[in-house]
Every structure is written in C-alpha cells, then in structure tokens.
TrEMBL record:
Entry-linked InterPro entries: DUF5696
UniProt cross-references to PROSITE patterns, sorted A to Z: PROKAR_LIPOPROTEIN
Annotated organism of origin: Paenibacillus germinis
Protein name, entry field: Uncharacterized protein
C-alpha cells in the first residue's frame, strides 16, 4: 500500500470487492487515475471466468481532501450474478434473466450496471400488486376496446407469468417476443366447422371406443339448420386432449383447414378478447444500447387495436434514496428533481414535436412549449443515462414521474402511439351518440430508442447534451460554424398583409404593405448607421397576398411591396452589402383553399381555428388555416422551386416545415405522422438544394441536417408543476453548429427586454427583432392584432444598443460548443464555452455576489481565456 494514501475497503457477503471505495489524501496529492489503478475488482460473469473492472465508477466527489467513488448496491451485484451474459463489446455487456425477461447492461468503463427493472421492487412498501407487476414489466400495452375505451396490459402479468414469451439470439443482442393476453394454443387439427355427414363418417366413425366417441361428440355442437358441427369453446387442456384423439385416427391439420374452408370458417382463430404479439429487441452498438420494436411485427385483433406502446418504463429507475434529477425536453429543457414530493402535480406526459394538428382538439386549456428534441435522461448519484428516440419519434411521447405516487421510483422514458382514434358523433333528432373511428394506416417501421451511459463528476445535463450533440454530428455529419467577423443580428420584417376593406359598401380583402422593399432597404441602412453591420434578414409576406399567403406552388411577388422589380433591387442591395436574405414561406399551413387539405379522423377537412382565451374552446369566428395533406407536399414544393429558381435568389426561411408535423386521416390516402415526417424531410432536402442556405423556424430535430439558422428556438419550458427548473439543453446541444435565436426580443412575454439580452448571452444566441416600417396602428382591429407595436422606429435604438453591448461577446463564442452550464445561485447561472470563455448572468433585480464577484442587478460578467 502506497504511503500516499490510506484505502478502506468493505467486503461484500458474496465475496466481491466492495462497491464503495474511499480514498483519503495525505500531504501529497494523488490523481484519481492513480487511486483507481490501485484497487481492482473481479466480478465473475456467467462463465465464471470474471471480467476485471475498476471497483468504482469514474464519478468522483472531491471535498475537504476526500474522494468518494460510488457503484451498484450489493443486491444489484447479486442480481447480475443470476443473469446470463448474452453478448459484449469493448464497452458494454448485455445480460438477460430468462425466467423474467429482465435485461441489464454493464458498462466496462466503470463497472456500473443498469437494469431494465428495479432489483428490489418486491420490497417496495408503496407499490400495490398491480404496480409491482408493472415494475417487473418491460412493456406496457394500452389498447382500445370496441367502445374506444382504454385498457392496459403489462408484460409481466399478461405474458411472462403465463410463459407466453420466447427469447432468441440476434446479431449483437437478443430478441424477446411477448404474447400478451389469453392466447389460445394452436391445435390446428381441430376443425372449427365441419359438415355433419363428414364429421360422423371421418371422425366419429373412426373412433372405436364408445366413451371416446361420446366424449369427442360432446365437444362439438350440431347446427341443425346448416347441418354442420361447430367446435365448442375449449380450455387449453381439453383442446390438447381432443387434438391427440384426432391425431390418433389420422385426422390432420390440412384436413381441418379444408373442412373449415368448405364450411365458411376463416383460418384464424375466433377472437376471444384482447391478444397482442409484441417483439422487443436489444442490441449493443458501440457504447450504446439500442432497443426497438418492429411495427410491422406487431400483432393484434381488429376488435382490440393497440393505442400506445411503452418500452422499458423502469429502465434506469432511481429509487427514493438517490440524488439527481430527470431531464425532460420540454421546450429548451427542464429538470425534475428526484423525489421532489410533488405528488399533487400531474405526471410528465408531452408529445415529441408537439400535438398532431389533425387531432381535432375541442378544448385547449393549456398551451405547452413544443418538444423539439426526442431525448430524455436521468441522473442518479454519480451516473446518468440518456435516451434518444431515433425510430418512431413523430409517434412518441416523453413520460416521467417521481417516486411516492404509485411506487418508490423516479422514472423517465418514451411511449409510442400505434393506432389513432377519435369519436364520431351521430345525431338523430335530439339524440346523440359517439362511435370510435380508428386510423387506417399504422406506422410499419421501427419504434426505436438508443441509450447512452455516463459516469463521473460531470454526469449532468450538460454532458447529456454533449452526448446528444455527438450523436447528431455522427449521424448527419454536421459541421461547426466557420469563424466570422461578427455574430449576426437577425431581423424579421413583415411585408404585406390582407385587411378588410369596402368599396361602395361591398366588403373585400385588400392587400396592404407594412414594409415595402424600398422601406426594408431604408431600415437596413438605418441599422448600419447605428453600427449594426452584420445582419441576416427574414422577410415574411413577400408573395401571394402577403403573410397569410396562398399556396406556394405558384409564386407571384406582391405588387404593393414593389413587385418583382423591387424585390430584385432589394436582393441586389443586400448582396452588395453582404446581408443574407431569407424570404419566408409556409408549406404546411394553408391559409386559403381546402382542396388538398388533410382530414381529421371524422373525415372533415383539417380546419384550424384560434381558441377563445377565456372559454378555451375553438372560436369558429377566427379561422387560422387548413393543414396541407402530406400527400400534396411534394407537388407543392416542386411548383415553388420551379418559380423560385427564376428569381435567382439563394436563401429561404421555412415557417412550418421544421416547426410542426401532422398526419392525414383521409380514407383515400391515409398517412400516419411518422410517414408525414419523412415526406417533410424529403421536401426540406429539395428546398435546401435549391436555396443553399435555410433559416428554420422552431428547429425540430428532423430539420437539423438542413438548417443553417434557427429562429424561435425554445428558450424556456412549459413550467409544468412537476418540473423544478429550466435548463438550456437545446442550446447546449446545438450551439457552435447553428446560428440560434429565440423569440424576437420585442415579441417575448418578458416585461424587461434586458432579460432577453441576458438569455441570449447565457445561451450564446443571436439578437433577434421583428419589425415593420408602417405605423403600429396599421394592424389595429385586424386579424394581425398580435403584430401591434412593431414599428421599427420604436425599437431601433434599443436593438442597436443591445447589439453593441453584447455583439463582441457573442462573436467570441459563436463557433464554440458549450462545455458547462450550471446554476450558481437563485437567479444566477454560468455558461462555459469550448474556448474557455465564461459568462455569469444575474437575472435578479438586486445585486449579488458569487464566486468572489459582485454582479449588479440584471448584469453579467465575462471572463476566462
């Protein structure tokens, strides 16, 4: 033993080296690598040969000269010994317990083990028998009955306990096929229906024993009218006995099938309640565990379709003794502290990419931030797990909950929508009844989640974002931003809009200019005179009647703005001044014309209205837009690209292709949401090739391979009751690869625009304003009231001042990733960038002192290399 340290070891009852290691430093310092190298543990695998691993995780807590390293409990170590090693690579080992279908993943880098189900679940004092069964399950299947009501089966009670599952090997992993429900055993030589004469001659006539003949005859009932025998409902052991008797007289499966066919009986068994076949496949891919269910292999009866499929709800669950948090991708990101005791708050349950627009929502009580990234994570003590949904993401919902509600575990995971359903109301006089209507084209691809594992003192949400960034870079070959002279000032200009007017008492829609092309040039010149020289312009409302334009399949520049000649003049000016131009276009939201609109499940056109802010119901007097059918997108994009190419422009702003994704329930061409996403990706790819540079509104994950600039990126969460704090996970994951901006500074809900500046500094985001040239009263009492008070003259000085104040700092960090983000105190956060630059933000209305630094109210400190 080195004189540099004293090492205290506890020995497990199973003869294993203890799961905890304490290293106490003396006068001379010892590196963590040296400390770990001195203590090794051999944890035997199933073969008994053992796998040498470091006895502790790489997580280290250093305080007062002491370093503690954590690992699994003794109970978890023993649980692993009862499992079978299936496969391994240089980083991970995959285990299964064949009796219960549980799996575990062991990380060779630190020896830590992640279990699909809590190993101590039977001791849980809070969980009822039902929830203990769920704690033992790897799958939860929610299905519809004939009335459209929801019920749930779990893989433990409804498959494993009934021994209705099979485990087989696949490349780099295993596949478990669960059969849930009352699955009748297939005795193929028992005819469902057989002619009376044939039954008496071929079967009864061949049975020589009287008792056997009577017993067999009793198991069938005679239909006198049809002159056929039908088999009765039989228990499995009775059917097995009958099958053997028929086999003894040589009656075969083929004969039974022919008798069934001759008498009008289908080849499938009579439906007797909900029954499901669900495959679940686990494979190792480098440092990742990949879990998937093949949509095309799902089996269910027409009477009981699958509504939702939840995979591995309890994978990585943290018990009520763990410290840490759950990461959810609500907006920019949010944390749910483990065991926060918010049992009166609803569990977290938000769909990826927001709600499907073709779900006809009658009431909208709460509007949540959109989930832009299909990820989730959990940190427990010194370890963290990140889940990335990469198959079926448009059908996915992120779920999370804390301990204490139904059981003693904190959980996070993903579930997938399989079948869509809505109620169709039938009316007859004063009577109404609702019948369920189901979608016709379920997703046939893979529902897939990829898990990554982290250990160490920095196993936090910043590290999770770094892992997700690494995943995106590898998947899409993303390139970092090139260094530039300055970080861009992003400006959105509103061009033309339509307003109600009248002529000799006859009402009509008049197209009016908010900002002509010449006036746009004047605003840009005014900005440059104020010292704002690096600008990116998003021009909204430049063609086909303005902001709420007609179909982009044909492009006609608005004459009231200056026409095609004026547009070309503006483009030439901006090219000369090196100002990128991004004309804005909406493809999915149709503001006029329903001929190619998508359909709701009730077959009505997907017509979207605004909601009454008081009653929360649709306000049918305030039409917003139709939703374009995904089947019409390719043709619409083709038409637009053809016309846009004639303008000779580069650059394009996508209003909705990266912001929403919707199904189409038309009976003629049904398209599920995942297939709709793939169609949107194809359209975006075509537009990228034409325009070269794309500005994307919202920035959903599937748009990232094509985006250069992302505006209206999320900067906060929905502030749900269950969550505890917001984090800029979105910006941490993407900064350095995209020019990012949140909402326009003058359109945010904050009362002090300086908060917007501070948020931009915290996240390394660009300054972004929304303006028009006309007086603010131009939109008063119109459908564009939300654009009130955007006259550029009211904001020019503030925008130029903010840019001058923060521009240098933003430019210094623009092309670098965020390597650390942390909360230093209430209302005080620190962001560290790849180049060593640190920014500390004080959002408080009073001065604070942190890290020996005095920060005035609403101020910041910049330092580092």
């Amino acid at each position: 033993m080195s004189s540099k340290m004293k090492i205290s070891l506890g020995i497990l009852s199973a003869g294993l080296v203890a799961c905890s290691l304490i290293v106490i430093y003396s006068h001379q310092s010892v590196s963590m690598a040296e400390a770990q190298s001195q203590v090794k543990s051999v944890l035997p695998d199933k073969s008994g040969k053992g796998n040498p691993v470091t006895a502790a995780s790489t997580e280290v807590r250093a305080a007062s000269g002491m370093v503690a390293v954590s690992s699994n409990t003794a109970e978890e170590q023993r649980a692993l010994q009862a499992m079978e090693l299936i496969t391994q690579n240089e980083i991970l080992m995959l285990y299964v317990k064949r009796e219960t279908a549980e799996v575990a993943v062991k990380d060779k880098r630190d020896g830590y083990i992640w279990f699909s189900n809590p190993v101590d679940r039977e001791k849980d004092p809070k969980a009822s028998p039902l929830y203990k069964s769920e704690l033992s399950s790897q799958l939860l299947v929610t299905y519809y009955n004939e009335k459209g009501q929801l019920n749930t089966l779990n893989s433990y009670d409804d498959s494993v306990k009934k021994k209705q599952f099979k485990i087989s090997s696949v490349d780099k992993g295993i596949k478990i096929v669960y059969q849930l429900g009352n699955i009748p055993k297939d005795y193929g030589n028992i005819p469902k229906v057989i002619g009376k004469q044939r039954f008496e001659e071929r079967i009864l006539g061949k049975l020589t024993d009287k008792d056997t003949r009577e017993d067999v005859a009793f198991k069938f009932r005679l239909d006198e009218q049809k002159q056929v025998y039908e088999v009765r409902k039989l228990q499995d052991f009775v059917a097995e006995e009958l099958s053997k008797k028929l086999e003894a007289i040589g009656y075969t499966n083929e004969e039974a099938a022919k008798d069934n066919k001759d008498n009008g009986a289908g080849s499938s068994a009579q439906e007797e309640g909900p029954r499901f076949t669900v495959p679940l496949e686990y494979t190792l891919d480098g440092e990742h565990l990949v879990v998937k269910t093949a949509g095309k292999e799902l089996q269910y009866t027409n009477a009981y379709p699958i509504a939702m499929l939840q995979l591995l709800k309890y994978f990585g669950a943290a018990d009520d003794k763990k410290d840490g948090y759950i990461l959810v991708p609500d907006g920019s990101g949010a944390l749910i502290h483990l065991n926060n005791n918010k049992k009166n708050a609803e569990a977290y349950n938000l769909p990826v990419y927001g709600s499907d627009g073709t779900y006809d929502v009658k009431e909208k009580i709460q509007t949540n931030e959109i989930t832009r990234l299909p990820v989730f994570g959990i940190k427990q003590n010194d370890h963290a797990m990140l889940g990335m949904i990469e198959g079926g993401d448009a059908m996915a919902t992120i779920t999370a909950d804390i301990s204490g509600r139904n059981d003693s575990y904190n959980t996070v995971g993903g579930k997938f929508r399989v079948m869509d359903m809505d109620f169709y109301t039938l009316t007859s006089g004063t009577k109404k009844s609702s019948v369920p209507m189901f979608g016709q084209k379920p997703f046939q691809g893979d529902y897939q989640i990829r898990y990554d594992f982290l250990s160490g003192p920095s196993s936090n949400y910043t590290a999770m974002a770094g892992k997700y960034r690494e995943y995106l870079v590898n998947k899409y070959a993303l390139k970092k931003l090139e260094p530039a002279k300055a970080s861009p000032f992003l400006l959105e200009v509103e061009g033309a809009f339509q307003k109600q007017a009248s002529f000799v008492g006859v009402p009509y829609q008049s197209t009016e200019a908010l900002t002509t092309f010449d006036e746009t040039q004047s605003m840009l010149t005014a900005l440059k005179e104020k010292g704002v020289k690096d600008i990116g312009l998003r021009y909204v409302g430049w063609f086909n009647d303005g902001i709420r334009h007609t179909s982009p399949s044909n492009v006609e520049v608005v004459g009231e703005l200056g026409g095609k000649k004026g547009f070309r003049k503006l483009a030439d000016y901006m090219s000369k001044e090196n100002i990128p131009l991004f004309p804005d276009v909406a493809f999915l939201e149709k503001y006029k014309g329903a001929s190619d609109a998508a359909s709701f499940l009730d077959r009505q056109k997907a017509k979207i209205y605004k909601y009454d802010p008081v009653m929360y119901v649709k306000d049918t007097s305030k039409f917003s837009h139709y939703l374009l059918s995904p089947s019409a997108l390719a043709k619409t994009v083709d038409g637009f690209v053809s016309d846009y190419a004639k303008l000779g422009l580069t650059g394009l702003s996508l209003r909705d292709l990266g912001n929403e994704v919707n199904s189409d329930f038309s009976p003629d061409h049904p398209i599920n949401r995942q297939d709709a996403l793939n169609i949107a990706v194809g359209g975006t790819d075509m537009l990228k090739r034409q325009a070269n540079k794309l500005m994307v509104n919202g920035g959903n994950a599937y748009s990232l391979p094509y985006a250069n600039i992302i505006v209206n990126a999320p900067t906060k969460s929905s502030r749900l009751n269950l969550t505890d704090e917001d984090v800029p996970f979105y910006q941490i994951a993407l900064h350095g690869f995209y020019d990012l901006a949140g909402e326009p500074f003058n359109m945010q809900s904050v009362t002090d625009s300086r908060d917007s500046l501070l948020k931009a500094l915290e996240t390394g985001s660009n300054i972004y304003y929304q303006w028009y040239y006309s007086d603010s009263s131009a939109v008063k009492d119109s459908d564009y009231n939300e654009l009130y008070a955007l006259h550029y003259g009211d904001w020019l000085d503030q925008a130029a001042g903010f840019y001058k104040e923060a521009g240098t700092v933003l430019n210094e960090v623009r092309s670098y990733v965020i390597t650390d983000h942390r909360k230093l105190a209430e209302g005080v956060v620190q962001t560290t960038f790849e180049n060593g630059k640190k920014i500390i933000i004080n959002y408080n209305s009073a001065a604070v002192q942190v890290n020996d630094k005095q920060l005035e109210a609403k101020s910041y400190w910049v330092g580092g290399e």
